[in-house]
Structures are given as structure tokens and as C-alpha cells.
Records
---
Amino acid sequence: ATPTAIMVGIGKGAENNILIKDAESLELGHRVNAVVLDKTGTITQGKPSVTAEHWETGGDVPIAIGTIKSILKAGESRSEHPLATAVVDWLKEEDVAPAKVTDFESLTGRGIRFTHDSATYFVGNERLMTEQKITLGTTLRQHADELRQQANTVIFVAREKETLGLVAISDPIKESSARAIRQLHDRNIAVYMLTGDNEQTAAAVAKQVGLTDYRAEVLPADKAAFVQDLQQQGKIVAMVGDGINDSQALATADVSIAMGHGSDIAMDVAKMTLITSDLTAIPRALELSKITVRGIR
Ligand code: ADP
Ligand code: MG
């Protein structure tokens, strides 16, 4: 496209809440035939809140629910993950005593680990529990399955090798997600969802937005590898995400789109930023590219 057409395209983008950093993505956009969407904060609102809790306090060393909550609050206060914020906000409303936490460690794609009163605690997903050889009892598993089928993310709490319970967190799906995905499908664009979240939760969200292609329990590097696989199949790939955990995949994609509310890293890496949470801005951005490129022919 000519410099003038590019300028017009960038201006039109701005009118449509799409900030375009370079000419190249504007020129490539109309050739995109695969769109990869992050789940949390892209398809969902990124405003998670606690919806359910289940505790098992009569284990080898009995513990009171109030004690678990104070330890959980202290541990999650150290994490910057949106799920951690949801847990801390929820416990703010309850009368929870402060607890002392040491040796805090964040475990990518899994959760957190820390020490309290010389015991090691693990808070995170099933992958974390499995890796730590912490067994989930039948009742706990049943609760988790049921909550995940309702699109909740389940976080387990364990002390040493023993589970203490779970917390369920729900992040509402954006009103625009299903419509945006339909518009992309109508343009014969393949749409995929990637998430670090659990398989069942991912399946429930995918179903609600009309997606059949998704990958659950993916680590940040796997998100980038997935984009690369599509490229090797000859696809021109747009990646849309908001998190630090999306930045590798954004850097790999042909067209990279960050959500404006997201992390600075995602916005730094991406060539386009949506300054709206409305996902129909994605098909509009690709359409804009078509108009820009056509303009010069
Ligand atoms: P995503 O943002 O796509 O869900 P992440 O890699 O950030 O992917 O997280 C993957 C999973 O790890 C989360 O769904 C959650 O189960 C677990 N997790 C990560 N951080 C925490 C935390 N601070 N507390 C509890 N669980 C966590
Ligand atoms: Mg995200």
C-alpha cells in the first residue's frame, strides 16, 4: 500500500479503537486465515471472582477453615496473578487474621508455593498437585469436576502432601466473544482458543462461544509453539492476547493484537492494540487491512 493509504488505514483504525503500530501488520491483516485467542482476559472479561469454596479440615493434622483462609490470603497476596487478586479480594470481606509467609515462589502456569509455620503450602491447579504427588480425594475431585463444567477455574490448596480444599473462580465471558468468533468463521478464518486453564473449564468456555478448536493447560512457550505449527501448515496467523504469558506467542505471530487493558509487555510486543474490550474489533481490524490494500490496486 502507498504511504497515503497506510496513513488513512491507521487513522481509520484509531476511529475504530484499533491502534496500529506499523504498516506491515496493516498490509498482512487481510491475508490472515487463522486467529488464535487467549482465553483469560481476551475471550473472558478478565475480572475473576470467587464463586465457591470447599474445605477438608479433618486430615492427619486437623486445621480450622479460618486458619486455612488466613494462610491462603497471605500466600496469594504475594502473587500478581489475576486469580490471586480474586482470592485476596474475596478474603478481604471476611475477618481473616494475618499470617506470616516465607520462601514464596511463583510457579509458572501452575500456581504458588510458600512456607508457613515450617510447613510447605501449594496453591494452584491440578498440574501442580500432580507434579507434587498430592492426591485429590474422591469428594474433592467430584466438587472440582462439577465446578469446572460450569466454566469455573478450580484452585487447590495443599499443605505438604495433603489437600485442604479448593476455591472456584469464575471469569464471565464477554458479551461480544461469540459474535466476534462467528464473524471470523463467516470470513472462513479458523479460530482457536489457548489457555493455561484446565481442560474441562476450557471446554465449557469454548462451547459457550461456539469454538471447537482449543488447547487447555498450555504453558507460555507452548502458546508460541502452537502459533508456529499453524504457520508451518501455511497459515497466516493473528494472535490476540493480554498477558505476559501471551507475549512469546504474540512475538511469533504474523499479526499480533494486544488487549488495551492488558500487561505492558503484551502491548509492547504486539503491533496492534485494541483499546476496546469488544472482540468484534478483531474482524474489523482485518477488514480494515483489506480496504487499505485494495485502495492502492
Ligand atoms: P492463563 O492466564 O491462560 O490461565 P497462566 O499460565 O497464567 O494461564 O495460569 C495457568 C493456571 O495456573 C491458572 O489457570 C491457575 O490454575 C494456576 N495459577 C497460576 N497462578 C496462580 C496463583 N497465583 N494462584 C493459584 N493458581 C494459579
Ligand atoms: Mg490472558
---
Amino acid sequence: ADFSKGAAFSDGKFVPAGEAAISVLDWGFTRSDVTYDVVHVRDGAFFRLQDHLDRFERSLKGLRLSPPSSMAEIGEIAMRCVALSGLRDSYVAMICTRGRPRIFGSRRPQDCDNKLIVYAIPWIDVIPLDVQERGAHLHIASVPRIASASIDPTIKNYHWGDLTRGLFEAHDAGADTAVLLDAEGFVTEGPGFNVFIVKDGEVLTPDRGVLEGITRRSVLELCGMLGIPARIAPLTSDDLASADEMFCTTTAGGVMPVSRIGDHIMGNGRPGGVSLRLKSSYWKQHKAGWHQTPVDYSIKTTS
Ligand code: PMP
């Protein structure tokens, strides 16, 4: 088998990522009844693997999903997917779907056998590199983020209907991507990333309606290390409109500068100094081995 384009673990077997399949009857597909997490490998090492496993475990508990493997086993499976692929830079997803009911026609989630899928594919940037370079243009979506009381944003989920509508709006408006406000007008997050603003030298990120991003956590830690004041706070579109700088954070991209939010152009349309400092220190810390677990590329067995 050719694992060079990625390796997946599905139904208890390791297969090339493109061959891993899921039933059309799986509730993950028909109901978005699924959770996932994404961790990355850079230069042959996982970044914050245990933090991602811990968040995945919290998400599983939150949705009352129990995969057929333990958390430690899932960590090893992820390691083996990367080893099999040989990828030095990889996007590694772990997914647990509700699966299918054991009893045909049952509508009871309790009757389902939950399914685990893990895969490692080549690195992906949520915002393309050339766009990151000039600073992304963000659109403030008119569609509100789904209510946290209905879909808990701290549980990583594929309820992306609102985010996808935001993306279409953004592209129609000529922007690169979107940020969504909640029904009360507070800033939340975007399709695949948390957001930050910089104002009067202070770094701020929304306190509600967001996934507790691991990159967001890393940026807050980096601010502490670099002596940059940082705070988690309620933010409104007025805060966006008066921001000196803005950036997005995600596992699949790191710190991604923004140069325009709605009509507000920041820093003469270029990424800001604090954003660039955090971006470069994020990758510098990676190189220095910060929060890393090296991949053992010798484990290439598929059984
Ligand atoms: N919010 C949403 C909705 C996301 O999908 C992601 C991507 N995982 C993030 C935030 C960023 O989280 P992290 O830094 O852990 O990748």
C-alpha cells in the first residue's frame, strides 16, 4: 500500500488515507453526531499531543461518545499513522462518530456502535500562505454563530452550517474568510480559527462562544513569555473596528495575521508588528522543541 499521501486508521485497520471510508448510514454523516480533534506534526514532532488528546477526551465525554480505543491507544494510533505516511509536516485528525445502531431502525443513540477514525495527511494551511503574508481580509458575517447553549463550541464539532454560510458571505464580499458574532453581538470565532485583536499594545481574545483553541492557549502563553499584556475579554464589532492589529489562530496555520476586518484597514494593509512577533516566536519555539513529542518513524507495521 502507498501511504505517502497519508495514512488512516479505520475499522481497526491502517489503510492509505484516501481509502478510509464511512457508511452513509453513520450518524456522523446524517446528524453531524461526531466530534474530532486536529493536532499537527511539524519537522517530525507532534505539537501539544497530550493537550489535543485531553481536549478530544472532554469532547467525547460531552457528547457521550466512547470510541473502541483508549486515549493512550489513540495517541499511539496517531503516531503510527504519521510514521506510516513518513510525513515530516502533517495534519492529524482523530474523529469519533456515533456510528450506526446495532438494532436496525433504532433511533436511540445508546444503540449505536461508535466509530473511531484517525488519519495523517500532508500539512494544510486554513488560510493560504500568500494570504497570510499580506494579511487576511476578514468579513464580519451577518449570520450569527449558533447559540452556545445549543451546540457547545468548546466541544469540537462539525456543526459548520453557520460558519460555512459566513464563508460564502465573505467570498461574495471579496474577503478571504469570516468572523461570526453571537446573537448578542459579541465576537466569537471563524471557520477553523480563533481570533485576536491588538489594541493599545494589549492582546485580546473573545471570552465566549469559542473553542478553547490550543493555538489560542499557546499564544496566551507566548504573550506571558514575551511580556506582552494579554487578556480574555468580551469583544464587540466596535472593538474590531478600532483594533490596531488582528490575527487568527489555528493548529493548521499557527498565528495568521489579518490586515482588514470589514471596512477597517489596519497597519496600512499589512500584518502588524505584534502579530508578526507572535507568529515568528510561535515557529521559533517549535524549532526549539516547545511542547513537542517526536514521531517514532520506525513503527511502520500495519497490524
Ligand atoms: N475554532 C474553530 C471553530 C475551529 O475549528 C478551530 C480549529 N481547530 C479553532 C477554533 C482553533 O483551534 P486550535 O488552535 O486548537 O486548532
